Amino acid sequence: VWVWDLTGSGFTAAGLGAAVMGFGAQSTPISNLHPAGGAGCDLLVNQDAVLLLLPSAGQAVLSLSLPSTTTFAGLPLKVQMISVELAGSNITLITSTNAIAGTVGAL
């Protein structure tokens, strides 16, 4: 099994996180997608999969596991974490990490 552990930091106590995973890259200002998008925060990864993250103590952790077969070997994968700050049920700010790129099966 190939395992890729990623940790994002800077999450607030009153918020949620998301991991955006994709095979391609983009550069879309988050403010184009939602009015609470933070200045200078861009969505850098195609949204082929999105997972909910529940931050704890300011950090969100994502652990991806793939079978170690030749089917996945060499597969390029990009991941970015998104922080959604809440005030009650209202979204007050959406920020993002940088994107990270990896190749399955590479060290």
Q: Beta-strand level of the residues, as a percent range? A: over 45%
Overall geometric form: globular
Low-confidence stretches: none
Mean pLDDT, as a whole number?
93
Alpha plus pi helix count? 1
Helix content: under 10%
Q: How many strands in all?
A: 9
The main sheet comes to:
5 strands, antiparallel
- Please provide the ordered H/E string of secondary-structure elements: EEEHEEEEEE
- Rg: 15 Å
Q: Structural class per helix/strand content?
A: mainly beta
Write the layout of secondary structure elements.
Blueprint: E1 2-9, E2 15-22, E3 25-29, H1 30-33, E4 42-45, E5 49-53, E6 59-66, E7 76-87, E8 90-96, E9 100-103
Antiparallel strand pairs: 1-6, 2-5, 2-7, 3-4, 7-8, 7-9
Description:
This protein is mainly beta and 107 residues long. It has one helix spanning 30-33; strands at 2-9, 15-22, 25-29, 42-45, 49-53, 59-66, 76-87, 90-96, 100-103. The strands form three sheets. Strands 2, 5, 7, 8 and 9 form a five-stranded antiparallel β-sheet that branches. A two-stranded antiparallel sheet has the order 1-6. A two-stranded antiparallel ribbon has the order 3-4. The longest helix is centred in the first third of the chain and has 4 residues, at 30-33. It is globular. The relative contact order is 0.33.
